[in-house]
Design brief:
homodimer; Arc Repressor Mutant, subunit A; Beta-Lactamase; Enolase-like, domain 1; 5-stranded antiparallel β-sheet; 11 helices; 18% strand; elongated; DNA-binding
Amino acid sequence: MELTDRKKQILKVVVEDYIRTAEPVGSKTIASQMEGKVSSATIRNELADLVDLGYLEQPHTSAGRVPSPKGYRLYVNELMEQQKLSIAETEKINQSLQLKMEELDRVISQAGRAVSSFVNYPTYMAATGKKKVTACRFDLLPVDERSCIVVLMMSSNRVKSQLLRLQLKVDLEQIPTLVTLLNSHFTGVSTAEMNQRLMNVADQLPPQLFLLLSQTIAYAVDALEDAGQREIVTAGAKELLKLPEFRDADKAHELMSFLTDSKENLPMPEEGPMKILIGPENVSEALKDTSVVVASYDIGDDMRGLIGVVGPTRMDYATVAARLSGFADGLTRLFGKQGLPPKEDAKE
Amino acid sequence: MELTDRKKQILKVVVEDYIRTAEPVGSKTIASQMEGKVSSATIRNELADLVDLGYLEQPHTSAGRVPSPKGYRLYVNELMEQQKLSIAETEKINQSLQLKMEELDRVISQAGRAVSSFVNYPTYMAATGKKKVTACRFDLLPVDERSCIVVLMMSSNRVKSQLLRLQLKVDLEQIPTLVTLLNSHFTGVSTAEMNQRLMNVADQLPPQLFLLLSQTIAYAVDALEDAGQREIVTAGAKELLKLPEFRDADKAHELMSFLTDSKENLPMPEEGPMKILIGPENVSEALKDTSVVVASYDIGDDMRGLIGVVGPTRMDYATVAARLSGFADGLTRLFGKQGLPPKEDAKE
DNA sequence: CTTTAGCACTCCGGGGAAAGGAGTGCTAAA
DNA sequence: TTTAGCACTCCTTTCCCCGGAGTGCTAAAG
């Protein structure tokens, strides 16, 4: 027995109806929603076949049919119509992204909240470096004999700074030499290399200068590693509570804990602009009854961000996918190829 | 009829039992938990009185009694035993606070999460400046003709920096003059005053310098206002779902939305170390069925932080209060009177 | 061979009624 | 003033019944 076109059409109707209503779909309903006119009896035969083929499931005898993960998969791969965003929706997305360009992090988490309220499912976001971030410029601004501000400019164009308290007094005259040294020997290299080179110059400098140097490098190493690391934030977990499948407080609590606590193992995309994971396709146990849609976007030339939506398996894939990719595109445009925008904040 | 000691004792038993079980408390239960031995019939008489006095409520005839807000209030004011933290608990608190001293914000929200998991209720946190934050030092580091890093040191000892893109080329020679101007005229004053003074010098500078100056000031104003503003973060909203009173998904959703979206109007303390708000004592409609315990702590000399716990009216006031003040004390100690700790980060 | 109509059957879900239980209020005695 | 006893109330749980939605099967029609 193979999958005829009519079977596919029926599957499509079942999936879409179930997405809308969260109720098992019966043969009569299907018959009335189908294009050509067929009787419910015919549909019933087809339905029995679709169950045998594994695309549908029956909660119990004499209930309607519900799509199985395999059914959703087929729907997503073949049947789903690429949904276009309406003008109004595009407007709304752009508007959401018209936030005052503050720091990257804030924009990202704000975007996450926006997406969440837009698709009515929880979202999560992360940014990962494509390349290693390196230092590209140092400055030291003496405040007084015992303190000094380090300013570090990174290859990602972000600037970070910190006030250092010094153990030993430092002769202000010597600072410029140190800055020159920093800029000539510690820029454009990995953090491991930076530590290495620090060791090399250890005995060529007076102790108080070396101390300042190593404090500076320690700070830079921290900052660079932090910048390269991906941080994950989630938003809109409460949306879950609106869905009938999570009216059971225990279930909701379980998934919510997973989203807020163990976010490390949320699905991350390999490549490609978008990925859909349905139910058991998720590795994490906690997500086995839910689906995830992830999209990625570019941040400048060397970073890649990611934004995902978590929802029930019957989530409205077409709409979510369309909106999510709308956002991803918007974000790419926002801090896209041309480098970070002029008013990019030094991550505060 | 007045409130005898025995009535108070009964009230105490009712409150504590109800806190534990979330079920109305019956006369027999009370009799068995009371010190002196009295029969349930006696208790029943007393209970009827307590209802008349408004300290207890009866969900319906022939159900047990439940404390009214007035009853909780009396309990909190008079009956509640100041609970001591066990050694193990103190340990645990200190341990939670032993996080690598990173930026203030991060510590605060981390503390929030810790408290939340420790009391099993959602928490919220905010830091507010006691005094206005002002700029105390500016620096401009030219990167190239068209860009420049501003470094701003604030009176709170925090350092922020940003890369500015310039509209017009600036002669590098002139930068030092500008820095001098900034440090002499724009430090130690309010943001309003800064804007004022900016206007005053408008026609005394060549246009490209003035542009740079105003960009710098605009950034500083933003940064200062941001630093003075209180930001509120919440944590552990999911804890709600564990409580029987929020098994109803609608209720949980409502409160959760309030916590995550409209946090502006969460109760803030006036003064004193701790405040307990019970049910209707809360102004916000959304909190009228819940209680809030807020504690405050000091950050350096000029800031004050606040940490609150939201829970059902039957929340375990004694324990929550003890643990919360444990945390508040710990936080005060952590970045207490002696000024910010040496490794205080420039908010990244 | 496929489609359709008809029909008996299954199973869920809602609506009472009945049973059980916890707790009260009242009365009368200690 | 306290206590024991008892009838009563009202919630909760359970059970059962019934209606409806939907199925599977069979037999007839295209």
